[in-house]
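Technical annex, item 7. During the second reporting period the consortium partners agreed on a shared format for inverse folding records so that results from different sites could be compared directly. Each record opens with the tokenized structure and is followed by the designed sequence. A conforming record, contributed by the partner at site C, is shown below for reference.
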């Protein structure tokens, strides 16, 4: 297992400076330094992917671009003030993904389903409508909860169309996202053990992914929908 790759304080220092100088002129002058820190973060993500590959099947790792899409935003600052990466689980058989967000004072890990398509969202909701006991059992497992806390995600206000707003599990059915987030201190991110902590966190979320993969690859009778 890779364990000697770290995030340096210089990465945080650069992001802080970028926050205070979020303009193209400054960034162009600092581009060689940005490239150095971007490479450092990419190396960290690649090491995290190696660790993940020992206990999960990862289709791809993505380091997100630093450039913001400002076309539809009131905030016209051109650059993100964080580094972020995402690991997609393999194909149609495994679902969900892992996320790393590195930003001074606002770093976190994420795992789950940020934007399920309408078919997947409907399938999850129908499963919860039929029987949410196993789902609740998994998200309340002691180890998972001690690392990740409560299930999070945006929700509709009352009930999705076609679902009873009085259903006993409407608190789950209302969700549009099914994600977990673990907030991180700067000291945790800069620690020599951060890579191992990332992997331990991702291992702890695995029962949730196993259940959701099972739901999303079967119909309500538990029969596989994969060819």
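Designed sequence (site C submission):
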């Amino acid at each position: 297992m890779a364990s000697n790759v770290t995030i340096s304080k210089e990465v945080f220092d650069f992001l802080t400076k970028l926050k205070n100088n979020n303009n193209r002129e400054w960034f162009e002058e600092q581009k060689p330094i940005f490239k150095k820190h971007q490479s450092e973060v990419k190396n960290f993500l690649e090491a995290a992917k190696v660790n993940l590959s020992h206990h999960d099947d990862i289709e791809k790792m993505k380091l997100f671009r630093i450039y913001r899409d400002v076309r539809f935003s009131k905030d016209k600052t051109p650059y993100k003030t964080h580094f972020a990466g995402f690991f997609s689980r393999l194909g149609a058989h495994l679902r969900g993904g892992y996320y790393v967000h590195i930003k001074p004072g606002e770093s976190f890990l994420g795992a789950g389903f940020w934007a399920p398509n309408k078919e997947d969202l409907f399938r999850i909701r129908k499963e919860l409508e039929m029987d949410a006991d196993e789902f609740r059992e998994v998200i309340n497992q002691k180890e998972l909860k001690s690392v990740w806390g409560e299930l999070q995600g945006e929700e509709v206000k009352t009930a999705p169309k076609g679902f009873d707003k009085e259903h006993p599990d409407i608190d789950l059915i209302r969700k549009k996202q099914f994600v977990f987030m673990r907030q991180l201190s700067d000291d945790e991110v800069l620690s020599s053990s951060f890579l191992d902590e990332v992997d331990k966190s991702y291992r702890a979320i695995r029962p949730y992914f196993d259940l959701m993969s099972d739901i999303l690859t079967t119909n309500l009778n538990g029969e596989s929908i994969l060819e």
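The chain has a mean pLDDT of 95. The longest strand covers residues 83-89. All partners now use this format for quarterly exchanges.
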